[in-house]
Amino acid sequence: MNPALLLIADSRLPAGGHAHSGGVERAVASGAVHDVPSLSRFLRGRLHTAGALAAALTSAAALQASCTPISPAPDTTEAGTRDVTEAPPATEGGAEGGDDRESPWVRLDDEVDARTAAPAQREASRTQGRLLLRVARRVWPSSVLDELARTVPDPHHPIALGVAAHAAGATPEEAALAAAYHAISGPATAAVRLLGLDPVAVHALLAAFTPDLTAVAAQAHFAATSAYPAPHLAPRWEALPAYSAPALDLLAEQHAQAEIRLFVS
Amino acid sequence: MGANHDDHHHAPDGRGRALRLGVGGPVGSGKTALVAALCRTLGPSLSLGVVTNDIYTTEDADFLRRAGVLDAERILAVETGCCPHTAIRDDIAANLDAVETLEHRFGPLDLVIVESGGDNLTATFSRGLADEQIFVLDVSGGDKVPRKGGPGVTTADLLVVNKTDLAPMVGADLGVMARDAAKVRGQRPVLFTSIRQDPTAATVADWVSERVMAWSHTHATPVS
Ligand SMILES: Nc1nc2c(ncn2[C@@H]2O[C@H](COP(=O)(O)OP(=O)(O)OP(=O)(O)O)[C@@H](O)[C@H]2O)c(=O)[nH]1
Ligand SMILES: [Mg+2]
């Protein structure tokens, strides 16, 4: 395992994740989540739907990034400031011509959109993706992150996560594992804060989920490799899963309308 | 929620951007009142933006918008997930995003004020988010607060002790507060205010405009 994965999966990564509850705040408000067992059911459902989807998309993004060779960011010392609005030269990541609509990042981002039904979920995903991208560009500067920022400034979170993991040196399967963990660790922490649950009991719960995390990441990675059969072949998007969790979608929409809330999502 | 559709992640050295001023301090000490006063006093001469960090509503942002001290679109609210101090100190991403969104939409700005959600005496701003920070106490918290210290009281670039109009009512001794603050703060300034009596917060506004001038001299955009 690449140690950089620890940094990417750490809830202390300063990328704004602490302000997202993944639907838990609304589930707590409705009474559906009220103790450790009900939290466990919520997390299991989330991991095997939204989490499994995010893991597959993250792995796909990492695989796509690995088709683009990493090069260090342009030297910034001389100019004093780096004009980040200036686009780096386009990479040859399968894009034909200079049209951004043809960029593989725009295409993959569209695939994530198509698999994220609720507008509130899309918004939350893009917000987290944008913040993660910003942090990753400073922590692991690379041309593929710059290219992503240029073509999709507000990428979905799984895309930012997959590319950041790649830039940090992690494999696509490791990226999928980070995504699966992210799908439950943030909501678990939010529940601790909202309900005053025993943090040790909640961590024991997370520990009990580790075999599921491994399984979800492996399946996700398998789907992603089927979608990218070979670097020179066009991606087979239909190989990527499209799980949905209507309850999470509803919670997200209700949350976006709520007058009183502590978490962004 | 800053939907930025351009790549404007800034270089971290601060050149060519506005001074970022953090306003922190315990719940109810008068942070929003101070931000409103600064907008009132500095708004006519400086280009401003405001970011609020509310705990569970957008109350502060709504108050400022209603007060009409600044264009409503120049005020953005950030949600902090139960942890107001995390959002200004440990994970500043959402606040930075909001600040940069304002600069991108309305820039160039002279000053962006970030009000933290009212928290405890240990909450201070990361230097990655705020270039200068004001910590606001009020006299009704008791005249012992400066003596207790804490990073906000001790290290803020300016300590404001607000609601001096209430001092006789709560039996707070301003002399004691001034002496204790000086003891823990050394040369760092302390100002006593009553925003109730002076809604322009003139003394604080003077300090802020001086900081803005100093910032713009040292961080001007290089001539290209
Ligand atoms: N008497 C008196 N009241 C004041 C003064 N300044 C503010 N207030 C009042 O104190 C209350 C709290 O002020 P805010 O500005 O909302 O305080 P805050 O620090 O922003 O509060 P939070 O954001 O909730 O932490 C309001 O009712 C203000 O009108 C003052 O100088 N004197
Ligand atoms: Mg306030």
UniProtKB/TrEMBL annotation, chain A:
Gene Ontology MF term list: nickel cation binding
Keyword annotations: Chaperone, Cytoplasm, Nickel insertion
Listed GO CC annotations: cytoplasm
Protein's UniProt keywords contain Cytoplasm: yes
Gene3D superfamilies reported in the protein's UniProt record: Urease accessory protein UreF
InterPro entries documented for this protein: UreF, UreF_sf
Domain of life (superkingdom): Bacteria
Family: Belongs to the UreF family.
PANTHER family: UREASE ACCESSORY PROTEIN F
Function: Required for maturation of urease via the functional incorporation of the urease nickel metallocenter.
Protein name listed in UniProt: Urease accessory protein UreF
TrEMBL record, chain B:
Superkingdom field: Bacteria
Location of the region described as Disordered in the Swiss-Prot/TrEMBL record: 1-20
Subcellular location: Cytoplasm
Family: Belongs to the SIMIBI class G3E GTPase family. UreG subfamily.
Originating species: Nonomuraea turkmeniaca
A Gene Ontology molecular function term of the record: nickel cation binding
UniProt cross-references to InterPro entries, sorted A to Z: CobW/HypB/UreG_nucleotide-bd, P-loop_NTPase, UreG
Protein name: Urease accessory protein UreG
Domain CobW/HypB/UreG nucleotide-binding per the UniProt entry, residue ranges: 22-191
UniProt entry tagged with the keyword GTP-binding: yes
Residues that hold GTP according to the record: 25-32
Described function: Facilitates the functional incorporation of the urease nickel metallocenter. This process requires GTP hydrolysis, probably effectuated by UreG.
GO terms under biological process: urea catabolic process
Basic and acidic residues composition-biased segments: 1-16
Keywords: Chaperone, Cytoplasm, GTP-binding, Nickel insertion, Nucleotide-binding
Transmembrane feature ranges: none
Gene responsible for this protein: ureG
A GO CC term attached to the entry: cytoplasm
Pfam family, one: cobW
Complexes and interactors: Homodimer. UreD, UreF and UreG form a complex that acts as a GTP-hydrolysis-dependent molecular chaperone, activating the urease apoprotein by helping to assemble the nickel containing metallocenter of UreC. The UreE protein probably delivers the nickel.
